[in-house]
Amino acid sequence: MTSNTKALKPVKFSPKIGRDFSATLNKRVRMYFKENNISRYANANMVIKTIVMVAMYFVPLGFVLFGGLTNIWLIALMYVIMGFGMAGIGMSVMHDANHGAYSKNEHVNKWVGKIVNLIGGYAVTWKVQHNVLHHSYTNIHGYDEDISPPPFLRFSPNAELKPIHKYQHFYVWFFYSLMTVSWVTTKDFQQLFRYRKMDLTKTENPNFGALLTELIFSKVFYYTTMLVIPIIILPIAWYWIPLFIVLKNLIAGFLLAIVFQPAHVVPETEFVVADIDNNVANNFAIHQMETTANFAPRSKILNWFVGGLNYQVEHHLFPHICHVHYKKISEIVKKTAEEYNVPYNSHRTFAKALVYHTKMIKSLGRK
């Protein structure tokens, strides 16, 4: 991760380049909602999905805690299902809420977004890393932490190249799986203190002590329900429980990583360095178009499970619109991009996106 602990100096996007494209696109998207008389927030389908995803995590947890399970394989299955539920909540529920896209009611967004606290993460640090650093500064060197991994990985051509990176296309998949293992152990604490030094936590709560207390309580709840109580009540050797927790997080981390990474680390996306005055030679919308890619736009099943994140272009342009509308919006975005000769990056299938992501990871490991 980035070692920057100073207050960030904002990047300045061009106010002129791409201005007409942005104005036209925003107008057309507003007209889509107005003409169809629909809200940009969650609809009934989104509410049903929320219930399904939350149940996919907490129903198996309920069986573990209160179901009287004795078969070790059945217990393991509950943790596996929770792994899929954890990824589903992360992509399809709390993601929209923490963008303010779930409901026009800020309190609904706040509390739905805090579901991530119950499954091992922390909404505050997630919002800083994702909403502030990633969405505001997508693929900008030194700003976007999503392309600033540990030193044995290289996700940007602007990062330092090391000999070990030559083999990263082989071992990166294992470290993708560790994403939520890092969440539930040390990462949230490290980020909270680092973001305070970067002056990024005040928008969430100027009282740092309150944030730290909330984080501690969320971790206590997580480990009590996920580790302590199962060790006490389940009739199996204690060491199976931490192994099942790791298994759950390996599944969730891998699913999350393989959805997010092919959206930005592929050959056709741009990787940007701001100039000496912190300027970027594009407006914000054009920058997002050049640094983001879609995949599998016709896959209804994938689109449902990953919360519309296969439409990353639309998500980055309109993060405050609920993902259930992305498919329709994508038609507007693609048409407008063609009119203004703006790149619209998209892979036909998820498998193709993963192949191109692998090629990019391999190329980044070489000179």
UniProtKB/TrEMBL annotation:
One of its GO terms (cellular component) is membrane. Keywords: Membrane, Transmembrane, Transmembrane helix. One of its GO terms (biological process) is lipid biosynthetic process. InterPro entries: FA_desaturase_dom, Fatty_acid_desaturase. It comes from the Bacteria. One of its GO terms (molecular function) is oxidoreductase activity, acting on paired donors, with oxidation of a pair of donors resulting in the reduction of molecular oxygen to two molecules of water. The chain crosses the membrane at residues 46-66, 72-94, 170-186, 220-241. Residues 73-346 form the Fatty acid desaturase domain. This is Acyl-CoA desaturase. It comes from Putridiphycobacter roseus.
